[in-house]
Specification:
single chain; about 100 residues; mainly beta; 2 domains; 1 helix; about 15% helix
């Protein structure tokens, strides 16, 4: 669980808390906003308890065959495949090391 304290102008604090609440990675369990008069300016202080749940990450397995019929597999996180032309395909993603 994350505990968050945000201070600033009431509009910015309210906008920020609404943005966090709309993010599907965070489940906001509790939030409160307090308005105080600090240094001759109105400021808001918001407290929130957040539960973080990472997004589901799909794995893409790319299999490449060599000229001598050997196969090589590359596992990519967040993989994307884009057909660029007749014989050109762009494959991108993140590589991870299971031993790190």
């Amino acid at each position: 669980m994350l505990k968050l304290r945000v201070m600033g102008s009431p509009f910015e604090v309210h906008t920020f808390i609404n943005h966090v609440q709309s993010d599907p990675q965070y489940k906001v369990e509790y939030t409160t906003e307090i308005y105080k008069h600090i240094n001759h300016e109105n400021e808001a202080i918001a407290f929130a308890n957040l539960e973080f749940s990472p997004t589901r990450r799909d794995e893409l397995v790319v299999k490449i065959s060599t000229a001598d019929n050997k196969e090589c597999e590359i596992c990519l996180l967040d993989g994307q495949v884009v057909k660029m032309g007749d014989h050109i395909t762009l494959i991108s993603g993140k590589v991870y090391d299971v031993f790190s």
